[in-house]
């Protein structure tokens, strides 16, 4: 019993120690790999920098690792690469200026659609007996009944 209690206490101490440590920062090589996977290659059309087999892409991947290891932020690296190779490197437009509407457009359109549908539902006729019935429909139905009685 004493042995089991000692194991439980030791396990609890290890668990508290493990949870109290700050999360480890990813290694520069892991961060460089993630950044390369998010950027389009300026050397291989339609491929990310991570998957491009060219030697120039390999050199650029090494440059990413060196710059990240030196403490440069991913956003500043991406911005400088966009200046060197063009904004297509990002793979999607940066949400600013006219490109902001590309990011906001679908959300705004969806919101407008919800508003339109909500208003249509609120103003719609919900009486089950009168759905599809108007005074013209009632008059036509009465006239049709009269003509059918005259035929039969």
Task: Compose a concise summary of this entry.
This protein is an all-alpha fold and 152 residues long. The protein has helices at 2-20, 28-38, 55-69, 74-85, 99-123, 135-151. It folds into two domains: 25-90, Helicase, Ruva Protein, domain 3 (Orthogonal Bundle); 99-151, no CATH class.
**Overall average residue pLDDT:** 80
Q: Indicate the structural class.
A: mainly alpha
CA-based shape? flat
Helix count equals 6
What's the CATH class label of the largest domain?
Mainly Alpha
Question: How many structural units, i.e. domains?
Answer: 2
Largest sheet: none
- Outline the low-pLDDT stretches: none
- Helix and strand pattern: HHHHHH
Beta-strand portion reads under 5%
Number of strands: 0
Query: Could you tell me how far the N terminus lies from the C terminus, measured between alpha carbons in angstroms?
Result: 100 Å
Overall helicity:
55-70%
* CATH topological fold name of the largest domain: Helicase, Ruva Protein, domain 3
């Amino acid at each position: 019993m004493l042995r089991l209690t000692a194991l439980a206490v030791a396990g609890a101490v290890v668990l508290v120690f493990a949870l109290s440590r700050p999360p480890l920062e990813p290694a520069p090589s892991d961060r460089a790999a993630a950044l390369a996977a998010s950027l389009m290659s300026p050397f291989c059309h339609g491929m990310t920098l991570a998957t491009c087999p060219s030697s120039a892409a390999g050199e650029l991947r090494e440059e990413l690792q060196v710059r990240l290891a030196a403490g440069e932020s991913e956003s500043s690296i991406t911005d400088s690469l966009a200046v060197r190779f063009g904004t297509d490197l990002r793979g999607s437009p940066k949400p600013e200026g006219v490109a902001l509407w590309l990011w906001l457009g679908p959300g705004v359109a969806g919101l407008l659609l919800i508003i339109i549908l909500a208003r249509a539902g609120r103003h719609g006729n919900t009486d089950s007996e009168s759905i599809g019935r108007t005074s013209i429909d009632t008059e036509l139905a009465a006239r049709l009944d009269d003509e059918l009685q005259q035929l039969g």
